[in-house]
Design a protein that fits this description.
Layout lengths: L22 E5 L5 E2 L1 H21 L10 H9 L4 H11 L18 H19 L2 E2 L1 H12 L3 E5 L5 H4 L1
Parallel strand pairs: 1-4
Antiparallel strand pairs: 2-3
C-alpha cells in the first residue's frame, strides 16, 4: 500500500503541522465561497430569456437551461464567453463572437456574456455569497497553528464576493 510522502521527504500522516507546511493556499470560488449557485442562476436567467427571445422571433422552441445538467456540462469552470458558446452550440445555435465591449443587448457571444455578468452582479449584490463553514474552520485552525494562509481567485468579482 502506498503512503503519501511529505513535501520535505519521508511519510506524512495527513495532519497539516507547522513543521511540514509553512503555508496553505485556498481558491475562493467553490472552496471558500459558494458562488456556483449564483453563477448557475444567472446563466439560467440569461439562457432562458435568450431562448424565449429567439422563439418569439419565430426560431424553433428550445428546452430551458437545466441547472443540474447544462451548467456542469457546458459552462462550469469555463471562461464566460466559452461557456456561452458551448451551451449555445449544444442547442445548435451559432452566434458571431463579437467584441469584448459589445453591449448586453447585442446578439453576440460577447454581448450575451456581458448580460450574464450583469445578472450575476445583480444577484451577488442582492443575495451575497455564502461561505463553507468547514473551510473557514480549517483556515482558522491552520492560522492558530502558525500556518500562513492565502486566498486566491481568478474571478473579476473577487472583491465584491469577499
Amino acid at each position: 500500500m502506498c503512503e503519501p510522502l511529505s513535501p520535505i521527504g519521508g511519510r506524512w500522516n495527513g495532519a497539516m503541522e507547522r513543521n511540514v507546511f509553512e503555508a496553505a493556499i485556498f481558491d475562493m470560488d467553490g472552496v471558500v465561497t459558494r458562488t456556483a449557485d449564483l453563477h448557475a442562476a444567472a446563466w439560467k436567467e440569461l439562457f432562458d430569456d435568450y431562448l424565449h427571445e429567439r422563439e418569439s422571433r419565430g426560431e424553433p422552441a428550445q428546452p430551458p437551461f437545466d441547472i443540474k445538467r447544462d451548467y456542469l456540462a457546458y459552462v462550469d469552470g469555463k471562461p464566460r464567453a466559452e461557456g456561452a458558446r458551448s451551451f449555445l452550440a449544444s442547442r445548435g445555435i451559432t452566434l458571431p463572437y463579437g467584441e469584448a465591449p459589445d453591449p448586453p443587448d447585442r446578439e453576440t457571444i460577447c454581448g450575451l456574456s456581458r448580460r450574464k455578468n450583469i445578472l450575476f452582479e445583480r444577484r451577488l449584490r442582492a443575495e451575497g455569497a455564502s461561505t463553507y463553514a468547514s473551510t473557514l474552520a480549517l483556515i482558522e485552525s491552520l492560522r492558530a497553528r502558525g500556518i500562513r494562509t492565502a486566498l486566491v481567485t481568478s474571478s473579476r468579482h473577487g472583491r465584491e464576493v469577499l
